Amino acid sequence: MKFKIAICDDEQNQIDYMASIVASWSAHAGHNCEIRTFASAEAFLFEYEEDKAFDILLLDIEMENMNGIELAKRIRKDHNRAEIIFITSHFEFVWEGYEVDALHYLTKPLSAEKLTQVLSKAADKLSVEPPSVVISCDGETLKLYESDILYAEAFLHYIVIHTKDNEYKIKEPISVFKNKVSDDFYRIHRSYLVSLKYITRISRTSVTIGNAALPLSRGKYDDINRAFIEHN
């Protein structure tokens, strides 16, 4: 397959190092890769405005002016499904990365073996259509990609599916909807089904996704933590 890969880092030695790893991986895996390098988020955006067809993004988080997290948020506003790999020296940014559906975090000093593994994971995800679910809403049949769904909320005989940009009200039990989606979703409460990838905080009584603090059923704290860790 052919992939367009961007490397964005404000340290030239890191750019050169990552580019060499990507080139080696490309040759061994048999992928035709176009590698583009950028010394700042602003430089990337300048080209991105003309051509948004990037498949894999290697983004340094700690860049001057616009950092890697801010750049990723800007890209996701376009509903761009590129696989994002963050490079960082600090763990405190990890929670923010889930807001932009990051594929993985890699810490410096960067391991060539680990980066190769993550690149292969990204290529595997890009080679198939993202998981989706078909719903009937307001007389229309719609396909929702699982990666866009934050959580589902039950109200008597219908549920509301909350996505990044919209809400969809459908007449269906939450238990039926749960069977339609993958194991990326977890039933935290009889009225709530959440995407594990968008969880930003777990407490004894609630699970936070974005600005929403959703109730966590008693006795599920250990299970949801285990599911979250295994998923990520």
Automatic annotation (TrEMBL):
Highest taxon above the source species: Bacteria
GO terms for MF? DNA binding; phosphorelay response regulator activity
Report domain HTH LytTR-type positions.
Answer: 147-230
Keyword DNA-binding belongs to the record? yes
PANTHER family in UniProt: STAGE 0 SPORULATION PROTEIN A HOMOLOG, TRANSCRIPTIONAL REGULATOR-RELATED
Q: Say what the protein does.
A: May play the central regulatory role in sporulation. It may be an element of the effector pathway responsible for the activation of sporulation genes in response to nutritional stress. Spo0A may act in concert with spo0H (a sigma factor) to control the expression of some genes that are critical to the sporulation process.
Q: Specify the protein name.
A: Stage 0 sporulation protein A homolog
